Amino acid sequence: MKKGQIYEGIIERVDFPNKGIVFVPEEEQYVTVKNGIPGQKIRFMINKFKRGNAEGRFLEVLEKSPLETREPVCSIFPACGGCMYQTMPYEEQVKMKEGQIRRIMDPVVKGEYVFEGVKHSPKEFHYRNKMEFSFGDEFKDGPLSLGLHKKGSTYDVLTAGDCQLVHEDMDKILLCVLNYFKERNVSYYKKMQHVGYLRHLLLRRGDTTGEILVNLVTTTQEEYDLTPLVEELLALELEGKIVGILHILNDSLSDVVKSDETRILYGQDFFYEKLLGLEFKITPFSFFQPNSKGAEVLYETVREYIGDIDNQVVFDLFSGTGTIGQVLAPVAKKVIGVEIIEEAVEAAKENAVRNGLSNCRFIAGDVFKVLDEIEEKPDVIVLDPPRDGIHPKALPKILNYGVDKIVYISCKMTSLARDLEMMQLAGYRVEKMTAVDQFCESVHCEVVCLLSRQKPDTTVKLSVDMDDYYCIKDGKDEE
Fold first, then answer.
1. Is the pLDDT of residue 313 over 80?
2. pTM of the full structure
3. What is the pLDDT of residue 458?
4. Active site residue 445
5. Taking CA 70 as the corner, what is the angle to CA 65 and CA 76, rounded to the nearest 5 degrees?
6. With helix as H, strand as E and coil as C, how does 31-91 read?
7. DSSP type of residue 391
């Protein structure tokens, strides 16, 4: 088997994240090919070898999978990689994700544990309350487009005017903004040359409130009067209501949505969303679960896993806008949240006051550093880290508290698996695990894990070089 060779085969299964496993009989070898569906017969080309394993580039579908019993629901499938599995029935998507979780977790977890399966999202479509769209063109020197990147490309952008992951209000706003700038022949930012004006359109919409925040992200290389755009947006017939239109200036060389300066063109720079009877103020860059109804299922699960916390202190680490902490606060003695994004912490403080919660304290800073400054000791810890998991220097500090229960929420199961190895080594046992499908049609899933501290008969002192450990483990986890 060599680079450039073309083969055909059937995808036997799909591992996380989106790794199709194909057996090539003539070579008696398995090949990993991304962007497929279990059961598809595909043509692919070998494009690299990693640690002795062959990887192929998907070329075309020769025969549809028996699991593909639905027609696509949007116009840019399958070119867009946003929702890979929309032709599969939702039940089959859930079964596939359950298998992915077990194949990763079963070898890592020591001893028996209860796996409670994947809980369904209350909404399969139109569930996202946040979407970042990019400006660009669909092909070189083509007309302006606004939407999502073509699968496998960092440059080509497909106009997502009928995206089914978001509410129809967002689709209408996207097309309005696109047509406005198309008519005026406005340039988009070209990442290689670092020239151009239009960068991103960040839309956020409260699922329960219908409040919409429109964020136009541009460079400062050109200047336009955006008053007519504001008027056109406010004239749209929407189910919800636009409460703020912001112009975010970003001259960063990296292709990331961030703000050097934010100008309010209309209304306010925040919106409200409600979860489990609580109200949350959300700003453009503060973290909030992207599936509001799914988040309610997730937080109810966390509340169930954490159990009775009456008269106990809860640490909510990587707390975002404080949603989990505030859901737990009514039944806890005190909740202390730590989050590195200051904007999110300020929102969390306001949210706690709005919800009448006086036993919440939110601190801005890096978990690794802040834990040294907190005098209180936790009885229970909730972890909801970013996709890459917990920083290798922060995890030992968290484990040194020796709390009886830890609930770990992970949006990347391979990061959770890596961290579980060290947590078990420190004397914690995985009691049970479940997942909430907050990202229907996509490759992702939110996993919730309950760990309890084991009390050994004897004490054994261990010395572990965490930097070396994580260097090795991260190497195995590389894409």
1. yes
2. 0.89
3. 46
4. no
5. 95
6. EEEECCCCCCEEEEEEEEEECCEEEEEEEEEEECCCCCCCCCCCCCCCCECCCCCCCCCHH
7. -
